[in-house]
Amino acid sequence: MGINLHAFHYLRKISKNTEFKKTLTIGRQKISADKYLINKIVNDNTINSKYIDQYLIKHFKSSSVDILDVNDYEGANVIHNLNENIPENLKEKFDTIIDGGSLEHIFDIKTSLTNLKKMCKPGGIIIHISPANNFCGHGFYQFSPNLFHSFYGEDQGFKNTEIILCKVFDSYHWYKIKRENYKNNKRIDIITDEETFVFCSAIKGNLTKYEFVQQSDYSQDFYNNQKKITLSNKNIDKINKLRIIKLKIADRFPFIKKIYNYFRKLGEYKYNKLNKSNKNIEIINIKKIL
């Protein structure tokens, strides 16, 4: 996807508290943002490259920048297909790994993400800048915050995991996911009406797991709790009968179904969109943190 203005700001935010040191980018990351704006942000007019590499070294505390790609078309010096397991010489080699929009183009997501985990040193950081919503056709996939929340969870050996959503045409705000709201096997649903990115950063611990990751609201604990609720609900038969009656009415009177769906959507949009009514996000003013 390349480094747009939001992505550049996010990397800059992280670099304020983290030295990137030995850095790996997944693919050579082009800067898609206006070069005048980028150079103004870092107060430097001496960099003329269309790629992020020189900025990482000069302004983001990278001691070196390696580029991993499936071929050397754009000057990559680490040639590897992330659909396949990485070789031993790449394990725990990098302090910072930046996926600036490559993951969605790789078919085997599980192997790819696991490879990033393996290449990162303990104490190092993995950064994702990925499509979340309304990028249909851009790549193989669009990503939910839940993927990064689960994959980079504390139970997987990661800490300080941060997940932020940003709308392409909103230059002033980010929307930080309140990860604590995932507790008790809850799901966080997000609705957006324009192209939306998901940013994630996570620090690798010393005891990282490489096991199967399960979405929390499909875990065994979730099913056990649901079973208890069902068994304890004495009115379950009445509820089911009422549901069937509603379906029959809706089938016979389509306009009633339309009215019901209209108000249901209003509720979903109010509480699941990126706005003040959504209790699962924290709205961040970009200017205040940069």
Please explain how this structure is put together.
The chain is of the alpha/beta class. It folds into two domains: 5-216, Rossmann fold (3-Layer(aba) Sandwich); 218-273, no CATH class. Helix content is 33%, strand content 22%. The protein contains nine helices and nine strands. A hairpin with a 5-residue loop joins strand 6 and strand 7 (173-177).
Layout of helices and strands:
Layout: H1 5-15, E1 21-26, H2 35-42, H3 53-59, E2 62-69, E3 78-79, E4 94-99, H4 109-119, E5 120-133, H5 145-151, E6 158-167, E7 173-177, E8 196-204, H6 220-232, H7 236-252, H8 254-272, E9 281-285, H9 286-289
Parallel strand pairs: 1-2, 1-4, 2-3, 4-5
Antiparallel strand pairs: 5-8, 6-7, 6-8, 7-9
Helix pairs in contact: 7-8
Terminal CA distance reads 23 Å
- Look up the CATH topology of the largest domain: Rossmann fold
Rg value: 22 Å
> What is the CATH architecture assignment of the largest domain?
3-Layer(aba) Sandwich
Helix percent band = 25-40%
The DSSP helix count reads 9
- The side-by-side strand order for the widest beta sheet comes to 3-2-1-4-5-8-6-7-9
Strand content: 15-25%
| Domain module tally | 2
Brief sketch in words of this structure:
With about 290 residues, the chain is an alpha/beta fold. It contains 9 helices and 9 strands. The protein has 2 domains: about 5-215, Vaccinia Virus protein VP39 (Rossmann fold, 3-Layer(aba) Sandwich), CATH 3.40.50.150; about 220-275, no CATH class.
Characteristics:
single chain; 290 residues; alpha/beta; Rossmann fold; nine-stranded mixed sheet; 9 helices; 33% helix
